[in-house]
Amino acid sequence: MADLSRRDIGKLVGASALVGGGLGTPAALAAPRDQSFPKDFVWGCATASYQIEGAYREDGRGLSNWDVFSHTPGKVANGDTGDVACDSYHRYREDNQLLKNLGARAYRFSIAWSRIFPEGRGTVNQRGIDHYNRVIDDLLANGITPYVTLFHWDLPAALPGGWQNRDTAYAFADYAGLMAGKISDRVKDIMTINEFLCFTDLGHKVGTKAPGLRLGPREVNHVRHNGLLAHGLGTQAVRASAKPGTRVGLAENAAFHIPVIETPEHIAAAKKATRDANAMFLTAVMEGKYPDFYLEAEGANAPKIQSGDMAAIGSPLDFVAINLYTAPYVQAADNKAGYTVLPPTATSPRMASPWLRVTPEAAYWGIRQVSELWNPKVLYVSENGCSTDDPAVNGMVNDADRVMYLRNYLGQFQRATAEGYPLKGYFLWSLMDNFEWEDGYTKLFGIHHVDFKTQKRTPKLSAAWYKEVIRRNALV
Asked: HSE (CB half, 13 Å, CA atoms) of 77?
């Protein structure tokens, strides 16, 4: 064979891209892979009350622990707070139009507990209920189905002891039951709690989130258990108070693991690693008990379980929603655990948030592992998205890196649906740029740019891309 020039090689590579199924097969004869989603797949976006609402002192709202935390010097980047945020308390109709323009069929948002019970329990603030009734009614008027999260980290600051106090779980149940009775004539999907790890460990062990504590292992396990108990009692309260046909679940950022190679031994190792890593949260919820190995490892620091606790925590769910961003790789190993978790390297690709490593396979394996471990009736992706550093130039944000991220992750979610796993919907995080907790306004996850001085919303390139995905009901 004669030597080929660089140009000749380029022509050969270009020609090979036009064929499929082997050299010489015309592209027209090569069937493209079907990348569509099920015909009834739910497409939506997600937000959380403290991150978007603002109006933190209006209409009888009580302070939350995030109000206290963000107003404490040094806790949040640049001293940012959620006092105004996206001003969605006043602009929710405008934000609902963003959803409508996308063609989204659903919106996951959370209710601020302290708008309903300014003191955490006791006297009900009717103005708070009226506000959320208006939000729900406007969504429905625009053909958008509301999915409501009852707790997304903004705990009423007035509750004595916060999550260190077991009584907070009972206060949450009272709140959950009240809201279920008020909104379940129109809201049929209710999530109790969002992401146990973040408000328990990151709030009470690491201290980077509200309330910013660094407790010992015994106290942290007590906080974890109280959070789980709140979910369980809240689930029971929703079932007791809601209208028939209401579905209840939770939104959890479970710790998933990716098999480093798709062979039986690595797949089994990754699944075991996922069950082990979620022992104190999702595993306990789905199995109605803490695994023995977890209780033995914690020893004297293990959670204090009272009669009836685990029955409540293990209350059957109508769906499981997962917040899925990243996961480590796992390989089978000849050790007690049966696996080794591979640490990320310095060159591992990341998005703007340092913690957000790009591991698209986490999307498929997260869905598959939850399905195989616990066989839920229905699964939703309650959050998936990424932060980027793309600036607004001449009123445009060409966030091609976010499109890259979403395209790769949605491809893996599509694989899960194609293989028959019960994934029924996807909520992109987030509808718009907002207050990103301890990062303030320095890390932006929205597909709509928000000018926080003028509150103008502008669709990014990623919004146009997502709109086309929704229109086709298929990966673009």
From this structure: 10
Q: What b/e sequence results for 59-98 when a residue is b if at least 16 CB atoms lie within 10 Å of its CB, and e otherwise? A: ebbbbbbbbebbeeeebbeeebbbebbbbbbebbeebbeb
Q: What is the pLDDT of residues 118-171, one digit of tens each?
A: 999 999 999 999 999 999 999 999 999 999 999 999 999 999 999 999 999 999
Confirm whether pTM is higher than 0.85.
yes
Positive/negative CA dihedral, 234, 225, 364, 267: negative
- The one-letter code for the residue type at 198 is C
Tell me how far CA of residue 338 lies from CA of 187, 278, 317, 330, in angstroms.
44, 16, 30, 10
Q: Residue 473's CB: how many other CB atoms inside 10 A?
A: 14
Query: Would you state the structure tokens that stand for residue 287, as one six-digit string?
Result: 């199995």
What is the C-alpha to C-alpha distance for residues 328 and 276, in angstroms, rounded to an integer?
Answer: 14
Residue 298's identity, in one-letter code, is E
- Among the listed residues 252, 383, 436, 438, the single catalytic one is 383
Q: Is 383 a catalytic residue?
A: yes
Instruction: Write down all domains in the chain, each with its CATH number in brackets.
Output: 36-472 (3.20.20.80)
195 flagged as catalytic: yes
Residue 124: φ, ψ to 5°: -85, 135
Which listed residue (195, 252, 436, 438) is catalytic? 195
Distances (CA, A) of 271 to 250, 275, 296, 381, 424: 21, 6, 21, 19, 22
Cβ of 337: how many Cβ atoms within 10 Å?
A: 13
